């Protein structure tokens, strides 16, 4: 595919359409913290194709509530078109209990799509022991060229195409195949999987150091997400009383790049839907900063961040969040 977004769209739309052929199955069960590449096509199907989107709740750690998912399925398992759950969250880094979710979906014969864009190369993914129907990855996350991605479908599993015209790739995706991009993506996946354990161990050590030091220097900070089962290179803090956007700009002036949410939602002036689904209050949500460590991140850079971040928080707190509070009261 041309990336993770296309792969997710093809999976969600294609699975939904294919599941309507022998029986109307309007319900799409989607985790409340999904990437918009999954949420948006699901809601589009709701507007255009009669779908009913039901959000699967998560707990305060950003992890799927399996009991709630079981209840949603039990309402009527025969009218569920598909379940969509990301392997690991792109904002707070929480890793989902994918094996348990797969077993639950398989037990009720409901197709499961997993967005593994954040997981590939960072977590162990062994499809030989997980009976997964559909999985999406994006090339640029693991060093492949931009505009490359992959949708893995279980052997014999059918989805309706989104693109029509040439019936390439077993009639799933029409269009001339990007041979060079596919070759580069294949090599990138091979290397990412081979180096996953070493890569994860290095990033986890840096991540744990960052969390420990910042929690000590800014004692009232909150670390969002699951502290145990999270992406090795992800940290996500809330600094109450400081605007996340202010912290971002203050660090940017010093050559340090962080974000206040999903990289794909940069510039969107609203609290993260992920944090809100986790039950985080508005003021902690807008005071949050996401810090992602990657392949090229060095310990020197982490030490620089540890030195600069507390001062950025202090400066941002001087500006305060009074405007946001007044607006919230009016609402």
What would you say this structure looks like, in words?
By secondary structure, this protein is an alpha/beta fold. The chain has 12 helices and 9 strands. It has helices spanning 4-18, 36-48, 66-75, 98-107, 168-171, 179-194, 196-217, 244-252, 273-277, 282-285, 299-319, 322-330, and strands spanning 27-31, 52-56, 80-84, 112-115, 134-138, 149-153, 222-223, 234-238, 288-292. A 6-stranded mixed beta sheet has the order 2-1-3-4-5-6, sandwiched between helices. A 3-stranded antiparallel beta sheet has the order 7-8-9. Strand 1 (27-31), helix 2 (36-48) and strand 2 form a beta-alpha-beta unit. Helix 8 (244-252) crosses helix 11. The protein is globular. The N and C termini lie far apart (43 Å).
Give the radius of gyration: 21 Å
| Sheet having the most strands | 6 strands, mixed
Architecture of the largest domain in CATH? 3-Layer(aba) Sandwich
- Give the termini separation: 43 Å
Mean pLDDT metric: 93
Order of helices and strands: HEHEHEHEEEHHHEEHHHEHH
CATH topological fold name of the largest domain:
Aspartate Aminotransferase, domain 2
Please count the beta strands (DSSP E, at least 2 residues each): 9
Report the CATH superfamily of the largest domain. Answer: Type I PLP-dependent aspartate aminotransferase-like (Major domain)
Number of helices: 12
Q: How many domains comprise the coordinates?
A: 2
Shape: globular
Give the uncertain stretches in residue-range form. 323-331
Strand order across the biggest sheet?
2-1-3-4-5-6
Q: In percent, how helical is the residue content? A: 40-55%
Supply the CATH class of the largest domain.
Alpha Beta
**Portion in beta strands:** 5-15%
